[in-house]
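Practice record 12: protein with NAP.
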Amino acid sequence: MHIYLILLALIGTIWASLFIYKIFSFIYIYFLRRSKILVYHHHHHNSSAPPWAIITGSSDGIGKQYAYELAKLNFNIVLHGRNATKLHHVRTELHDSFPHLSFRVIVADASKSGPEATSHIKEIVDSLRDLHVTILINNVGTGGHIDGSVYSEIQDTPTEDIDHLINLNARFPAHFTRAVVSLLLSHGGPALILTMGSMAEFGMPQLSLYSATKCFDMAFSRALRMEMMLAGRKNVEVLGIMTGSVTGVTHNESQSTLLMPDSAAFARAAIERVGCGEDVVAATWAQGIVYKMVGAMPLALRDRSLEAGVKEDMEMRERNAKKA
Ligand SMILES: NC(=O)c1ccc[n+]([C@@H]2O[C@H](COP(=O)([O-])OP(=O)(O)OC[C@H]3O[C@@H](n4cnc5c(N)ncnc54)[C@H](OP(=O)(O)O)[C@@H]3O)[C@@H](O)[C@H]2O)c1
């Protein structure tokens, strides 16, 4: 009996210590530490020109805000998207606000796949070889179908939407990262690969393809982090950003709340998390609590919460559609 009591006390102490450690590390990550983003603001030998950040899907939403936030920190920016007119408009806006910086535009439809699409990615990344690139933000992604709708049961999801979501959210980021890594490693200095995940990765009903592809993004990011570490590239940071709902994006213009920040606040918060030492981290403390709680919930409770979240979002979209 005595030995069981000692064992129980030991397990209790370890559990309590881990719990306290997790609480302190949460407080440290969100309230005490400073971002290490400026580690990536280093110059090419022979040049004092600011370094470059490449941001995919930066003609709108969170990607556009990443561009603004990094420009504020004096990074030159490569903007990527599918719509040349929209991209040039964003470039002009950025140039007006930050005339001392340079901005380039690359156009590639991320929903395309196959040898032609892959060689197009190689071509556009080759056209950036003259730049001192220190940051890649894999931001492009969508939960939307080709017709703009979001929710569908798998048997009702058109086959072309399955390919659309897999190409945009998984194939493109994989091929693009493969091509850009050579630029990031070429200078031997610190480099950052930041990839956008989604809390949908817990498995959201009627969002099976989106959930699966976002799971791909975070598994890819986690594995890449380990790959860099094992190869001894300790100055290459690979960070996944776990994302809950964000407003001020193409498909959501609602009022922001604590749990649903606008895209500018979200991009700022994600940049604040750089260098935190995690493999995947939520950008804001409020979404961080939700992420930890949903991960720790018993399955039955998690099922109910995810179902409620989807229902609420469906209703919000219906209300917004009626208003429009
Ligand atoms: N907003 C949220 O609540 C939320 C939640 C979880 C995760 N995320 C993730 O956050 C990231 C950004 O989402 P967001 O809400 O900011 O999206 P968004 O407002 O729809 O912006 C997406 C960006 O990607 C571009 N894009 C879309 N389809 C493309 C294509 N086929 N080829 C090239 N570029 C394309 C868009 O270009 P156009 O300007 O031409 O449309 C735009 O620049 C995504 O990875 C998403 O999964 C967002």
